[in-house]
Write a structure and sequence with these properties.
35% of the residues lie in helices and 23% in strands. The protein contains 3 helices and 4 strands. It has one domain. The chain is globular. A hairpin with a 4-residue loop joins strand 3 and strand 4.
């Protein structure tokens, strides 16, 4: 079983955590990456949205206030990037590979 822990500090609610099949497979093939993904989730929860442009960062700040969708993007290595999306309407945070969107 793959377990990703909620970060202790959350600037906004992350709600229920969901990982996609692609992330589950990636962690199964690379178990140490679970900690890297948890680190990215902690950054997301602190409003460090990773590799997105300034416009999208501003949209995320607006989304937090209005209860909308918040997107972060983080490289795990030279070839793998993850997205973390918190959908406040659905009360869920999903960790996925961009191609799974």
């Amino acid at each position: 079983m793959i377990a990703i822990k909620h970060p202790e500090y959350q600037a906004f609610p992350l709600w229920r955590l969901v990982i996609t099949a692609g992330i589950a497979s990636y962690i199964e093939e690379n178990p140490p990456m679970a900690k890297a993904i948890e680190h990215c989730l902690a950054r997301h929860a602190r409003k460090d949205f990773g590799d997105i442009d300034q416009y999208d960062k501003e949209q995320n700040e607006y989304a937090i206030i209005k209860g909308l969708r918040v997107l972060s993007s983080y490289p795990l290595n030279e070839t793998v990037k993850i997205w973390i999306i918190t959908d406040q309407y659905e009360h869920a945070t999903t960790i996925l590979l961009p191609e799974e969107y």
